[in-house]
Design brief:
The chain is an alpha/beta fold. It has three domains: 373 residues, Na+/H+ antiporter like fold (Up-down Bundle); 117 residues, Rossmann fold; 109 residues, 3-Layer(aba) Sandwich (Rossmann fold), CATH 3.40.50. The chain is 65% helix and 8% strand. Helix 30 links the parallel strand 6 and strand 7. It starts with a helix and ends with a strand.
């Protein structure tokens, strides 16, 4: 009845007001007599022309062009970033290459009409302004990621290495400027401005890219990792202060005029450190929790960022320095900084920063280097940049007491330029100091020096291998022990895995070695909070292990390639058993899932091969791609754990389908001995009756532990029985058989440990 009333009200309301609007229009038409000059109605043949004109106008409208540019840029940047990540390079390299790809060096060269449509000259100012907003947010994040406390603790070595890594290439860069000034410097640019900008462009280290490389190579906890991060942070602060002074000198036109700009900049820095920072600290201490960090409070911090950028822009030292400074003075509270970085980072790095890469790419015209002399100059620039930064850092590191290998590694890492270099080059281009040809050469230099960091570190490792074995492997080197590694994501699953492992080694833990591996996405970690994230990740796991007096070796790794890290860690550690969680696609069973599955087959050559050969069904039955990769590549016994809230391992059911399942009896023995578990073996299809050895193994366990093992047929399987169990043990082949045949009871199983025999 209520639905009928609602429908009647809806119909009467819509029809009544529609009639009223029609009546008003009809009454208003006579009013047009003195207002509108009537024209003859356009004939139907011109209607299509009108539609085409309208569509053309809409497509070429500045907003439509900008949106299309952003879509194209984001997709291209993500594709190139993914490809370069796959070959072991930082994602930023791929994104920079994507910018050059979309610029005149490739798309503009081979598809000029498309390039002219997508990036018309009239649209470039819009792209530039939006990319500048992205840079402001990015520099704010860079400032927030600097840990000033760490800098203060390790200032001595860091300052020496950092400043040596600046002054060496700066001096060599000015020498280079002396050589190329006459040929390449733009008209009306004096030698001081040109030489200072070449010098600073040689001296930059990309702190964010370097931090990611340190994370991905597991150097964070090492002494060299701590030193190089501190050096890069000190380098960033020093280089940006020098850059601010250089910009002031260039804009002022003389050193005396620049003195006043620098004086104002010093006043600005003192204001930020002595007045604004204490105020923000008090605000951060009060509003440091989720329930108190309201939108008005967040607005205060963002307004601080914008005002800081505005002040440095009008002083004459660029808005980016103000954004960087605003990030540095933000409250040091870990939760507070995490919240702000999460709010800003995705918009900045994913949406806005790729616009800057493409804008840089549009300015980079590799076609300008059209003769051997120009490429010779480019090679000279790269050589001087590498020599200055690499040797300057390495020599200084050796001088303060680092070994030769560590010194060379510090030199290789400090030679990373990446995005920070591009920011400096674009400032120089905007000021008219760097001509297009030199700008292109310096962009190539930034790419080469960043690209070479990984190979250089690998080469140093190759020629100077470590004499000591991995400290983690040393700690669990005892080969006679039963060694288990479990990899967990969230803490609840990790605690369930601790309970599971304890059921296997509880009473024999002195003769076992248990290791817990936790992986975090490296692009979601920040240098200042890695230790805190590691500590918080393992805290509930260690607490659970302590309940069982179980000693854990913990292993923490930031990475973007989870399956590779799990595979490498388990294979190199010579473990007896690896336990991982079962992954599941969020799109499983949906139309989108099917569509994405088709897309994945097209993109993934391995999956396409398995599809064509008919092996895909066998490989993928019941598991996601990550789990399948681990199944294929691990050398030890593997347990895939599907957790349904495992609280205890008192009642265990084991499904036996074939001779290959016989190895599961050893797990029954372990659980009965170590945990006094009650084990029920289901003789599916009466297989055990034909296997005498199988029956003898079960009888032997029954004699040693009466009332702890029982044998039943498949008719025992029912919903009440399965609900009374804590854990199901099953071999991987048997699991695939049941997933393919889909028996009714499969959805009622408790937590499951799916085992692959060695």
């Amino acid at each position: 009845m209520k639905n009928l009333k609602d429908a009647l009200f809806y119909i009467l309301t819509i029809s009544g007001f529609a009639f009223l609007m029609y009546f008003i229009v009809k009454k208003g038409e006579p009013l047009e007599i003195n207002k509108v000059i009537k024209t003859e109605q356009v004939v139907n043949s011109n209607s299509w022309v009108q539609i085409k004109d309208t569509l053309h106008h809409n497509i070429t409208h500045p907003l439509a062009i900008l949106i299309l540019q952003i879509i194209t840029i984001i997709i291209t940047a993500r594709v190139f970033g993914f490809l370069f990540k796959k070959i072991g390079q930082p994602t930023v390299i791929g994104e920079i290459i994507a910018g050059i790809f979309l610029g005149p060096s490739f798309i503009g060269l081979f598809f000029p009409e498309f390039s002219l449509f997508l990036f018309p000259k009239t649209s470039l100012p819009n792209l530039q302004f939006i990319s500048q907003i992205g840079l402001i947010l990015f520099m704010f994040i860079v400032g927030m990621e600097l840990d000033l406390k760490t800098l203060q603790k390790k200032a001595h070595e860091a300052i020496i290495i950092s400043h040596a890594s600046i002054i060496f290439p700066f001096a060599l860069g000015m020498g280079l400027a002396y050589i190329i000034y006459q040929t390449y410097a733009p008209d009306n640019i004096n030698f001081l401005s040109f030489s200072l900008f070449i010098g600073i462009s040689m001296s930059i280290t990309a702190f964010p890219v370097l931090a990611r490389i340190v994370q991905e190579r597991q150097l964070t906890k090492t002494r060299i990792g701590a030193i190089v991060i501190t050096c890069a942070a000190a380098d960033d602060i020093s280089a940006w202060c020098i850059l601010a002074a250089v910009i002031a000198i260039v804009k002022a036109g003389s050193v005396i005029s620049a003195f006043y700009i620098i004086l104002m900049a010093v006043g600005y820095v003192l204001l930020m450190l002595k007045v604004v920072q204490p105020f923000l600290k008090r605000l951060g201490d009060i509003y440091s929790h989720q329930d108190t960090l309201s939108k008005p409070v967040v607005a205060i911090f963002f307004v601080t960022l914008l005002i800081s950028s505005y002040l440095t822009e009008i002083i004459g030292i660029h808005a980016l320095f103000g954004a960087f400074m605003a990030g540095v003075i933000m409250p040091q509270n870990l939760y507070f900084r995490n919240v702000f970085i999460e709010k800003v980072e995705d918009v900045s790095l994913v949406l806005l920063l790729p616009l800057f890469f493409v804008f840089t790419g549009l300015r980079t015209q590799i076609g300008l280097l059209n003769d051997i002399n120009l490429w010779g100059t480019c090679a000279l620039i790269i050589s001087i940049a590498v020599a200055g930064k690499f040797l300057g850092s390495a020599i200084a590191a050796r001088f303060v007491g680092q070994g030769w290998k560590d010194s060379l590694m510090i030199g290789a890492l400090m030679n990373t330029r990446g995005l920070m270099e591009l920011i400096v080059l674009n400032i120089g281009f905007d000021l008219g100091i760097l001509p297009p040809a030199i700008f292109t050469m310096l962009v190539i230099m930034a790419l080469v020096t960043t690209f070479m960091t990984g190979p250089a570190l690998d080469f140093i490792d190759f020629i100077m291998p470590d004499k000591k074995s991995n400290e983690y492997l040393d700690s669990i080197q005892s080969q006679q022990k039963y060694k288990i590694l479990f990899s967990f994501g969230d803490s609840e699953r990790g605690k369930s895995m601790v309970r599971l492992v304890n059921s296997l080694v509880g009473k024999t833990s002195n003769n076992a070695s248990v290791s817990a591996l936790h992986l975090e996405p490296s692009n979601e970690l920040h240098q200042y909070n890695i230790r805190e994230v590691e500590k918080e990740s393992f805290k509930p796991i260690k607490r659970e292990a302590n309940k069982y007096n179980l000693t854990l070796h913990t292993f923490f790794k930031p990475t973007l390639d989870f399956e590779k890290e799990i595979i490498d860690t388990s294979n190199q550690g010579d473990y007896d058993l690896l336990i991982v969680g079962m992954g599941k696609s969020m799109y499983e069973g949906s139309f989108l899932g099917k569509l994405l599955g088709i897309t994945t087959k097209i993109i993934n050559p391995e999956k396409l091969y398995h599809t064509l050969t008919g092996a895909e069904k066998i490989l993928d039955n019941g598991f996601d791609d990550r789990t399948n990769a681990i199944i294929r590549s691990t050398k030890m016994e593997l347990g895939i754990f599907a957790d349904k809230g495992l609280k205890k391992v008192d009642d265990v059911v084991i499904l036996i389908l074939s001779n290959e399942d016989e190895f599961l009896i050893s797990y029954a023995q372990k659980m009965i001995h170590n945990n006094e578990s009650r084990v029920v073996i289901i003789n599916y299809n009466n297989h055990i009756k034909q296997n005498v050895e199988f029956k003898e193994s079960i009888r032997a366990i029954e004699q040693q532990a009466p009332n702890h093992i029982a044998l039943y047929g498949q008719d025992k399987i029912s919903e009440p029985f399965l609900q009374s169990m804590d854990l199901l043990l099953i071999s991987i082949d048997t699991w695939r058989y049941f997933v393919e045949n889909k028996p009714d009871w499969l959805t009622q199983v408790p937590s499951v440990l799916i085992l692959k025999h060695r």
